[in-house]
Specification:
The complex is a heterodimer of chains A (284) and B (156). Chain A has twelve helices and 14 strands. In chain A, the strands form four sheets. In chain A, strands 4-5-10-6-7 form a five-stranded antiparallel sheet, sandwiched between helices. A four-stranded antiparallel sheet of chain A has the order 11-12-13-14. A three-stranded parallel sheet of chain A has the order 1-3-2, covered by helices on one side. In chain A, α11 runs antiparallel to α12. In chain B, β3 and β4 form a beta hairpin. Helices cover 33% and strands 16% of the residues of chain B. The model of chain B has no long low-confidence stretch (mean pLDDT 97). By secondary structure, chain B is of the alpha+beta class. Chain B has two domains: 77 residues, Ubiquitin-like (UB roll) (Roll), CATH 3.10.20.30; 69 residues, DNA polymerase, domain 1. Classes of the chains: A alpha+beta (284), B alpha+beta (156). Bound molecules: flavin-adenine dinucleotide and FE2/S2 (inorganic) cluster (FES) (2 copies).
């Protein structure tokens, strides 16, 4: 299908993009890689009057080593996140999660920032960002602000990014020394996650000293499985101990029931996949 | 209307387009390059796959204005003057198609995969092509064709 007509603005700086959003009013949309926005426009689920293309903004296309963190521009593609040497070395959870997103063609165009800003409850990268305690750099008419992952994801398809704001970059703390794994369950190769689990585990002398677990599609936004995280700390890195801790993975979650799975099955998946993700991350 | 120019299959092309025009429609309707088909409305099937600056994209999921200044290769730009591309030949030799509707996209996605991974395993081929759907072949001969092309291209 063909999208409704819109005005097209090609911004070359973040300030230009913000100015274009302000000038166009509430009815404007940023175009990142377009891999979620284009389907929405083509199915006419939305018909913004103005599209502000930020793919030519150089600032948002770079990955910078900040010492204890990586600053990944919002316009860095999912493919680059999957294959970049810095990301693979210092935030392997993010690169391995990116590899599970969609297919090669979609990954070539879709962006890290677009995926986070879109905030699909079944999106994979937002979950990795939640597990990694990322920070989000947002630019608006009043300047720039930084928001934690806990405050960034608000609800179904809703983030802290306002209608006149642009997500500029995501700050990813390095996780050198942590084991990492993203476990995604879907029925067919192309499908989105029915449930996904991102795990980061620190093991010292056979004991789990720290753990972070985040869930995909177990509620309207990425959820940290804090009870599993607490239960894992101080446990031996063994299959039995991990399985026992993973039993609380679905506690406090609000999974939906849909054609792919009902809430009960999703809860079961959350427990099983958490066990697998943590065990793999811990090298068990 | 917005002015765009791009190199398409080695030829410089330009024109005035509506911003909402999809790349696949620019190729098919404005440039007459109907070798790139449209198979779905949801960006799932991959029939419309072309290369933009050497990397695969689903041309139904990209606006024409987004490829201003880029280099686009469609299935029609793959063969040289007198010879098919090795992936095209392999699809013919291995019977990697039946109705042929998915084939342009399948071949472009295979070319993209082999650029990154010249010697893929069967599993890597299946994973690398999972954004392309075929309703006829059951994929086996497509996988064979890609393996065959890989061997051919690496001279073994
Ligand atoms: C067939 C198919 C399969 C897919 N499978 C998966 C999957 O398995 N897992 C998964 O996680 N995703 C999947 N996706 C989605 C894909 O990862 C998208 O690339 C991603 O969701 C959006 O990124 P984008 O850069 O393309 O954003 P766009 O489509 O350009 O934008 C999406 C939304 O975010 C806003 N936006 C984008 N960038 C910014 C910014 N910098 N600042 C503020 N707002 C911004 C836009 O205004 C829009 O509302 C799939 C998509 C398709 C078409
Ligand atoms: S027509 Fe482009 S993916 Fe189906
Ligand atoms: S040969 Fe018919 S769809 Fe693939």
């Amino acid at each position: 299908m063909i999208p409704s007509a819109f005005d097209y603005v090609k911004a070359t700086t973040v300030d230009e993009a913000v100015a274009a959003l302000v000038a166009a009013g509430e009815d404007a949309k940023i175009l990142g890689g377009g891999q979620s926005l284009l389907p929405v426009l083509r199915l006419r689920l939305n018909a913004p009057s103005t599209i502000v293309d930020i793919s030519n903004v150089a600032e948002i296309r770079t990955i910078t080593d900040e010492g204890s963190s990586l600053l990944i521009g919002a316009g860095v593609t999912t493919d680059e996140v999957a294959n970049n040497a810095l990301v693979k070395a210092h935030a392997p959870l993010l690169s391995m999660t990116a590899e599970t997103v969609a297919d090669r063609a979609i990954r070539h165009r879709g962006t890290f920032g677009g995926s986070c800003a879109h905030a699909d409850p079944a999106g994979d990268l937002p979950t990795a960002a939640a597990a990694l305690d990322c920070e989000f750099v947002i630019a608006g008419p009043g300047g720039r602000r930084t928001v934690s992952a806990a405050d960034f994801f608000v609800d179904f398809f809703t983030t802290a990014v306002g209608p006149d704001e642009v997500l500029v970059a995501v700050r990813v703390p390095k996780t050198d020394g942590w084991g990492a794994h993203y476990e995604k369950f879907n029925r067919t190769a192309q499908a989105w996650a029915i449930v996904g689990v991102a795990a980061l585990v620190k093991v010292d002398g056979g004991v789990i000293t720290d753990a972070r677990v985040a869930l995909t599609n177990m509620g309207p936004k990425p959820i940290r499985a804090t009870s599993v995280e607490a239960a894992l700390k101080g446990q031996p890195a063994t299959a039995d101990a991990i399985k026992a801790a993973a039993a609380s993975a679905a506690d406090g979650t609000k999974p939906t029931s849909d054609v792919h799975a009902d809430a009960e099955f999703r809860s079961h998946l959350a427990r099983v996949l958490t066990g697998r993700a943590v065990a793999t991350a811990a090298g068990v | 209307m917005t002015h765009i120019s791009a190199t398409v299959d080695g030829t410089h092309r330009q024109g005035e387009v509506e911003p909402r025009l999809l790349l696949v429609h620019w190729l098919r309707e404005n440039l007459g390059l109907v070798g790139t088909p449209i198979g779905c409305d949801t960006s799932n099937c991959g029939a419309c796959t072309v290369l933009v600056n050497g990397k695969s994209v689903k041309s139904c999921n990209v606006l024409a204005v987004q490829i201003d200044g880029a280099e686009v290769t469609t299935i029609q730009g793959l063969a040289s003057e007198d010879e098919w591309h090795p992936v095209q030949k392999a699809f013919k030799e291995c019977h990697g198609l039946q109705c042929g509707f998915c084939t342009p996209g399948m071949i472009m996605a295979s070319v993209d995969l082999l650029t990154e991974n010249p010697n893929p395993t069967e599993e890597e081929i299946r994973d690398g092509l999972h954004g392309n759907l075929c309703r006829c072949t059951g994929y086996h001969n497509i996988v064979k064709a890609v393996s065959h092309a890989a061997a051919e291209m690496s001279g073994s």
